[in-house]
Amino acid sequence: MKQILFILSFLIVSYGCNKSPENVSEEKKEDLKVNEFAIIIHGGAGTILKKNMSDEKEAAYKAKLEEAIKVGHTILKNGGTSQEAVMKTIQVMEESPLFNAGKGAVFTNAGTNELDASFMDGKTLNAGAVAGVKDVKSPIELAIKVMTDSEHVMLSGEGASTFAKEKGLEIVDPSYFFTESRFNSLQRIKEKEKTELDHDAKAAFYDADIKDSKFGTVGCVALDKNGNIAAGTSTGGMTNKRWGRIGDAPIIGSGTYANNVTCGVSSTGWGEYFIRSQVAYDISAQMEYQQKTLKEATKDVIQNKLTKLGGTGGVVALDKNGNMSFEFNTEGMYRASMDDKGELIIKIYKE
């Protein structure tokens, strides 16, 4: 009997040693806590090519991405919440004309700027979103206010604006969102529409326009020291959009999702496909129900499921253990990340 007990004890100890971090397979390393806190952001995905980017413009994008992510990282480092980190980080990008969000929003067919945003709290699974807003300076702040100060998840148009005014959010004249470059983009598209194109040529033109006109949507996912994940996304939508078109950015489960059990995700790309695929939620679901790692789930959803459907774009994602993932099927995505050790990564092009 003593021999049997000794053998069993030896096997148990040996098994435990074999499960040490050094012996864990690469696939299961994501089960280990790698960051006490972390933050990851994107500034849109599309046909972003080095040959089309001037040194000055590239430097400007990298500088703004760095500025934005450092704001959120400082909040997290000092013990702040993931909610505050996501909001403040996105606001930096909303106030920059470089991105298709807030100040740099694209124009609709009617020549207006209509803004969408969403936010989700991974601890409570509560969420807030707004669509078609024209005079609220910070759509992401309004989305969070919908979550915290109303019984609703999504508000749109004039109603969302009225709610913002009642809650004391900053209201601006719609001209605040005007940028010459975005306005000129609309004019070029309208001029192209007037040209005589056969059906196939016109279809190709619209496909290219749709794929590239969502440049600059911004998003952020953060994990704070309390283990809470938050995700947010903000956008001006699609250039030349009509009829009150709404994309994936304000749709919980498509453009934004967060769950402390799994991960947080912010999407950017051809919104109609992200809605049909429920991209952000699908990543979380694969992790929860199929026990996939974050990288496995993001790769399958973007490179396999979304691509086969015909959609283009990408996601930034961060799991409960601080693992991070950039995944996109386009030529580039403005992106950055920072971990709890302060390591900063900023990238633009596909590698």
Key terms:
single chain, 351 residues, alpha+beta, Glutamine Phosphoribosylpyrophosphate, subunit 1, domain 1, 2 domains, eight-stranded mixed sheet, four-stranded antiparallel sheet, 10 helices, 12 strands, globular
Report on this structure.
The chain is built from 10 helices and 12 strands. Helix 4 (139-149) links the parallel strand 3 and strand 4. It starts with a helix and ends with a strand. The longest helix has 23 residues, at 55-77. The strands form 2 sheets. Strands 4-3-2-6-5-1-11-12 form an 8-stranded mixed beta sheet. The chain has a 4-stranded antiparallel beta sheet with strand order 7-8-9-10. Helix 3 (82-94) runs antiparallel to helix 4 and helix 9 crosses helix 10. It has helices at residues 2-18, 55-77, 82-94, 139-149, 157-166, 180-194, 199-212, 271-277, 279-290, 294-309, and strands at 38-46, 115-121, 127-133, 154-156, 218-223, 229-235, 256-258, 263-269, 313-319, 324-328, 332-338, 344-349. The model is unreliable at 4-8 and 10-27 (pLDDT under 50). It is of the alpha+beta class and 351 residues long. It has 2 domains: 1-32, no CATH class; 34-349, Glutamine Phosphoribosylpyrophosphate, subunit 1, domain 1, CATH 3.60.20.30.
Strand content: 15-25%
If strands are numbered along the chain, what order do they take across the biggest sheet? 4-3-2-6-5-1-11-12
Q: How much helicity do the residues have?
A: 25-40%
CATH homologous superfamily classification of the largest domain: (Glycosyl)asparaginase
CATH architecture of the largest domain: 4-Layer Sandwich
- The overall pLDDT average reads 89
The dominant shape is globular
**Main beta sheet: strand number and arrangement?**
8 strands, mixed
Number of beta strands: 12
Rounded radius of gyration (Å): 22 Å
Domain count: the total is 2
Count the helices. How many?
10
Predict the CATH topology of the largest domain. Glutamine Phosphoribosylpyrophosphate, subunit 1, domain 1
CATH class of the largest domain: Alpha Beta
The arrangement of helices and strands along the chain is HEHHEEHEHHHEEEEHHHEEEE
